[in-house]
Specification:
85% of the residues lie in helices and 0% in strands. The protein is built from two helices and no strands. It starts with a helix and ends with a helix. The mean pLDDT is 82.
């Protein structure tokens, strides 16, 4: 049940998650440079 609900993403949730990942990657890139 929980796995099925996990697959049902909202587009807004996906966008916010993507922005979070992008910010995290940018942060790591700036630190390691």
């Amino acid at each position: 049940m929980e796995v099925m609900s996990m697959k049902h993403f909202d587009f807004k949730d996906l966008m916010s998650f993507g922005m979070f990942i992008l910010a995290l990657l940018t942060f790591i890139y700036l630190i390691c440079r």
